[in-house]
Amino acid sequence: MRERGRRALWVRWTVALGLAALLVLAWAVELRAEGPSITIDLGGTKGQTSVVMQILGLLTVLSLAPALFIMVTSFTRIVIVLSFLRQALGTQQVPPNQVLISLALFLTFFVMTPVWQSVYGDALKPLFAEQISQEEALTRGLVPIRAFMLKQVRDKDLELFIDLAKLPKPKSVEEVPTHVIIPSFILSELRIAFQIGFLVYIPFLIVDMVVASVLMSMGMMLLPPVMISLPFKLILFVLADGWYLVVGSMVKSFH
After folding, report:
1. Is the pLDDT of residue 233 over 70?
2. Residue 130 — pLDDT band, cuts 50, 70, 90?
3. What is the DSSP string of the chain?
4. How far apart are CA 190 and CA 154, in angstroms?
5. Spatial separation of the C-alpha atoms in residues 88 and 238, rounded to whole Å
6. Residue 218 pLDDT > 70, yes or no?
7. Under 8 Å CB-to-CB from 9, ≥6 apart: which residues?
8. 232 within 8 A of 186, measured Cβ to Cβ
9. Rounded to 5 degrees, what are φ and ψ at 132?
10. What is the full DSSP assignment across 8-34?
11. 196/74 Cα distance (integer angstroms)
12. What is the pLDDT of residues 65-95, one digit of tens each?
């Protein structure tokens, strides 16, 4: 009886799927007979076409904005140091990722504000006023961003990517291409972030070692040292005004 019921159910589902497929096929044939068409109108005049192209360009820039924001700003260094700080405290998910990312974003806005003001005053404002072309605006806008990256980049990292790109040795930094400066800047930022993270880790590592030694001397082998050292690390961080020191040191490292 069960096998008959399963066969009947299978037959019903097969018939239902077949009818659905026939309906879809009939609908497709009907649409094809009617001859639907899709047209893309870029505007009848030159002004309308330029507006559409500007919108497409804006959407393209917005899609690439997160990557550009991470690569050419101070965000990389700040978020890595904050992640090291949370691991050193041993609080796992406190502060949560949303808080750390938001803090890193606002600190990045603070650090990069002079650069963006220069970009707006030298490139975007004349472009919006139709005083310069888009190519000239792009050239002017890259100048303060390149200056910021070159100020933070290490000469050794810059020479590495110049050799990897097989470029002739430039006579000045103005001759270095932007596609060489960006990876050199990222590599330098990672190096500095790990150096700061190492310095942040040391005080909390000492607390963990002291607590572990005390517990071993007392014969309390089964008690996790992390559970005991966490309150001491938190009170040490609060008494030393840790957030003030860490954030202040990171921001000052860009000047």
Report:
1. yes
2. confident
3. -HHHHHHHHHHHHHHHHHHHHHHHHHHHHHHHHH---------SSHHHHHHHHHHHHHHHHHHHHHHHHHHSSTHHHHHHHHHHHHHHHT-TTSS-HHHHHHHHHHHHHHHHHHHHHHHIIIIIHHHHTTSS-HHHHHHHHHHHHHHHHHHHS-HHHHHHHHHHTTPPPPSSGGGS-HHHHHHHHHHHHHHHHHHHHHHHHHHHHHHHHHHHHHHHHTT--SS-HHHHHHHHHHHHHHHTTHHHHHHHHHHHTT-
4. 11
5. 14
6. yes
7. none
8. no
9. -130, 165
10. HHHHHHHHHHHHHHHHHHHHHHHHHHH
11. 14
12. 677 777 788 888 999 999 888 888 887 777 8
Which residue type occupies 60? T
What is the reported pTM?
A: 0.69
